[in-house]
Amino acid sequence: MSGTTAPPPGSAPVEVTLDAGVAVITLNRPAKRNALTRSMRRDLAALLRHHGDGHRARGIVVTGRGDAFSAGLDLREAARAPLDLPAEMELFHDITRAALAAEVPVVAALNGVAVGGAGEMALSFDARIATPGAALVWPENATGLTVSNAASLFLPRLAGAARARELILGSARVSASAALGLGLLDAVTEPEDLVPAARRLIHRWTPPGSATAAHLRLLRPDADAVERAMARETEAVRRVQAAGVARAGIEAVLARRR
């Protein structure tokens, strides 16, 4: 797939191809802007574990098909009774666990907007590359929801505490150029070079005989700190659900879409 941004489209909502030793995982639900259903989140975590063991691939790229990386949580699915946002969040958290346990680099190739949990999971990856038209959006605060994927740890770590506070409380939409300046992205490149650029980065980080797996373990946050952050996020979403704030926010978003 050299020179392309994604493998040929298929029917699976999460697809994977191997190219030049790199596993490219593609979120393939473009008609729904790659909104992440429960099964998609399970599949993504499973694929990260399968290809992250160091035996099958030297790195993993996660990208999306269509004009969005992912709209984040599939709110229509989540809103079906009974609402269980802690369980929804746990499926996101398992993606972060799988990415952080990988023996190989995990790179997000943001082909478009990454909303909420989708952008938050990308923060837990080892690098993020985006197209000029991509953006990161954290709408949770304004819609009565809360952040996930240890974003409460990763966002201050990458952008600083003050900027993280503004991004989350201000329900920010951050353009690719602004995200690059904030340290949330590692590079911005043209769409046709997005996946190839991510693949080149993985090749550069994994030369023959390298100690990349050992250094990834050293450079990633401590697993206990990540688990503490995710536990606090789960408790936060439990509180806003119990208060009715989350249900009202989801219904308002769905009403605007209708």
Topology at a glance:
Blueprint: E1 14-19, E2 22-27, H1 38-51, E3 59-64, E4 68-70, H2 75-79, H3 85-101, E5 106-110, E6 113-115, H4 117-123, E7 127-130, E8 135-137, H5 151-159, H6 161-169, E9 173-175, H7 176-182, E10 187-188, H8 194-205, H9 212-219, H10 223-242, H11 245-257
Parallel strand pairs: 2-3, 3-5, 4-6, 5-7, 6-8, 7-10
Antiparallel strand pairs: 1-2, 8-9
Helix pairs in contact: 1-3, 3-10, 5-6
Describe what this molecule looks like in 3D.
The protein is α/β, with parallel strands linked by helices and 258 residues long. The protein has a single domain (14-196, 213-257), classed as 2-enoyl-CoA Hydratase, Chain A, domain 1 (Alpha-Beta Complex), CATH 3.90.226.10. It has helices spanning 38-51, 75-79, 85-101, 117-123, 151-159, 161-169, 176-182, 194-205, 212-219, 223-242, 245-257, and strands at 14-19, 22-27, 59-64, 68-70, 106-110, 113-115, 127-130, 135-137, 173-175, 187-188. The strands form 2 sheets. It has a 6-stranded mixed beta sheet, sandwiched between helices. Helix 1 (38-51) runs parallel beside helix 3 and helix 3 (85-101) runs antiparallel to helix 10. The protein is globular, with a radius of gyration of 17 Å. The protein starts with 13 loop residues before the first strand and ends with a helix. InterPro entries: ClpP/crotonase-like_dom_sf, Enoyl-CoA_hydra/iso. It holds the Pfam family ECH_1. This is Enoyl-CoA hydratase.
